[in-house]
Amino acid sequence: MRAATFHHREAEAAILGAILVTGREAFRFAESAGMSGPLFGDSAHRAIWEACAAVVKAGGDPDVVAVVTELERRDVLGQVGGYGYPSSLTGMVADVGRHAAAVLSAWRLRESAASVRRLMAVANASETDDEAMIRALQAEAKLAGSLFDGALDSGIEPLSEYVLAAQAARLNPDDANNLPRYGTGIRELDGGKDPLLKMTRPGDKFFIGGRPSMGKTTLLLGILKHISDHHGPTFFASRESSKPSIGNRADAYDRNAGKSESAIGTEWIPRNMHIADRASGMATIDDMARMVRVAHAEYGIVAFGLDYLQKFSTPTGMEKAEKRVQYAYAASVIADLADDLGVLAIPLVQLNRGVEQRTDKRPMMSDIRECGEIEEHADTVMMVYRDGYYTGKQNDHSAELIIRKQRDGATGTAMVHYEPGRWFGD
Length: 426
What we know:
- Helix content is 46%, strand content 12%.
- The chain is of the alpha/beta class and 426 residues long.
- The chain has a 9-stranded mixed sheet, sandwiched between helices.
- Helix 1 packs parallel to helix 3, helix 7 runs parallel beside helix 12 and helix 7 runs parallel beside helix 13.
- The N terminus is likely disordered.
């Protein structure tokens, strides 16, 4: 089967026509709009662009005569259709900025198609190993993000930005990275000059683990509410709870604020929080990643939560891979989102049943399924433990939030109050 191609031939021709008529000014404008030789899908157009670039670099004006002369010098005039084709382009009507965007979009589609073909080659290879599969899928996930966000980042940035950041950090030693700490809204974690929990900054990966019925979802919703109230929009992606169920939980928070069961409150109406559930077409971890990028682009989210990591399936081709491999891929997708978008990631993770076999049922790092793969990506791992769940004491509303790993801080435990299904904290 012939591989799919994505070219916007008319837009490419219109850009070149504008350059051949208007000259250097149009070429510079096209460059500023993001155009370069590799973006042209048509080889003839690519050759004409490169001839224009050579003329401009030499100090000339890229009109038809100068460009045809350069094409002859490069011995490629015949490949572009002879003398007649460059001349025919001058009759095109161009909106260079709009046409450049069309060409760029077509290039991204070509790159995406090429990446998919590479992925399929890896998936179909007779001796595919898990690590190769992960690398191929990570490359495709990163590319998908770049297709959504815009042009691929060159990675070139002005040094001045980093000098200013270094100066700000030097003048503000309390936060060496000069990034805001969002916190959780729980005094026992956030309070004091030296808070127990430090890793709640843009780009951090804050994993929360616990056995079922420990209150993980309630805790996550409360943290996202705090962030949306004080720092900016948030996004909650769940394959565990439906949107109506999430709405009921939010209403429970509002009723907790001293209201009767019949009251209609507005304090907790989360205008800055956005949600998606399994009915939103969010089946795989890559589906979730696309939705996070959409939420970031449309609403400017500063943090997202995931309920919960193991509920999201991995892409086609990984179904038979070991769970270790699948979780490694999922954790890497989450880490890439936090890094690429500069947002706080808060995924929930389910703990294995080994906890139930011990006398002391407080969770440990080893209780996270496939612990090593998740721990590698996490800046912070916090466990939720409620002794009353195991003792059966209905009036025991105590909970322990146990920090088992913190990249820039200490480990420790915060003793907090827990109101089942409603809230953690004071």
